[in-house]
Amino acid sequence: MPEDFIKTQSYEREAEILKVLGHPIRLKIVAGLLSEACNVKKIWECLGLPQATVSQHLALLKNKGIIEGRRSGVEVYYSVISEQARLIIQALFKQAPCK
């Protein structure tokens, strides 16, 4: 491996994405959000988890730039914005590319 390659690439962002996606609940959330934007209620109902648990995971995903929330009235709909996370999920589950 060329020494220049190692010096010029930091890998920090990529490692952070892998770390965040390394939790099963967050992995499920991101995989689910690839098919459609969802609000918190739909996510916790689909996962069968308490709303507080889901909200904590959503906050971390949002803070790390993997998802974003879009307000519609009183509800917030989440969707995946990280192309790197999208590609990782697709590779893991061999999904067709999502829009």
From TrEMBL:
Superkingdom, natural source: Bacteria
Gene Ontology molecular function: any one: DNA binding
Keyword Cell membrane: no
Gene3D superfamilies on file: Winged helix-like DNA-binding domain superfamily/Winged helix DNA-binding domain
The keyword Cell cycle appears for this protein: no
Limits of the HTH arsR-type domain: 6-99
Keywords, ordered alphabetically: DNA-binding, Transcription, Transcription regulation
Pfam families membership: HTH_5 (PF01022)
InterPro entries, A to Z: ArsR-like_HTH, HTH_ArsR_DNA-bd_dom, Metal_resp_trans_reg, WH-like_DNA-bd_sf, WH_DNA-bd_sf
PANTHER family, sorted: ARSENICAL RESISTANCE OPERON REPRESSOR ARSR-RELATED
NCBIfam families: HTH_metalloreg
Entry protein name: Transcriptional regulator
Organism for this UniProt entry: Syntrophotalea acetylenivorans
Lineage: Bacteria, Pseudomonadati, Thermodesulfobacteriota, Desulfuromonadia, Desulfuromonadales
